[in-house]
Amino acid sequence: MGQALGEELKRLRRAKGLSVRVLAQRIGVPHTTYANYERGLAAPPVELRDGLSSALGVSRERLDDLIEDDQYEVFLRARPLSEEGKAAVRDFLRLVRQREKDRPQG
Prior knowledge:
Blueprint: H1 3-15, H2 20-27, H3 31-38, H4 49-56, H5 60-78, H6 83-102
Helix pairs in contact: 1-5, 2-3, 4-5, 5-6
């Protein structure tokens, strides 16, 4: 993952006055797992995003957009693409995100 997502998660957490441990506890993950999100080593999985967005005081859509943008930037750094290719990647990521939202929970 990329640093931009981690930095934004850290900024949002600090704005709420939360420690890594407290936020991790609120969303039900070990503090080391959440710390990896802020370090840019992993992205929060879909099943944690509602709780995380609530704890950070942002909409689920905003959190999904941050993660999507981060994944897009990481992909582009790994492989140069034409403008058409970049647009195709962004469209694909949006499609995947929409399918995740539409998938029945439970």
